[in-house]
Amino acid sequence: MGKYDDIIHLPHHVSSKHLPMPMQDRAAQFSPFWALTGYEASIAESARITEEKPELSENRKKELDERLQLLKEALLTEPEIAVTYFVPDSKKRGGAYVQVTGIVKKLDDFEHALIMKDGTTIPIHDILEMESSVFEAVDF
What we know:
Order of helices and strands: HHHEEEEE
Strand order of the largest sheet: 4-3-2-1-5
Oligomer: single chain
């Protein structure tokens, strides 16, 4: 004969004074034991890869300046351009390369930015590459 044979087949007790606790509330009793809240997100963030911003050579900077001048002269024709630029990461060191293709609205000398017709603002000091039919006539 087993230790609990006398009570094993009795019906489960249901209180006549207290309502049964909902399953969600029962699970919440154990939430204080979830000690590593945010740990998964922290690990995912530290594993996310960012790239370093490259340092452009003087020749490359000069070429980009010449392209900006050509672009400035062609603004009335609403030139389409593909721009690759560096976007710094807001949470950690480094960032990512972004490529945008669109029509240039203006070159803002005060803000040192290239402003696209769709509202995208690209800081000039973050531009790595520019491609457009405007540049085809000039050999760089």
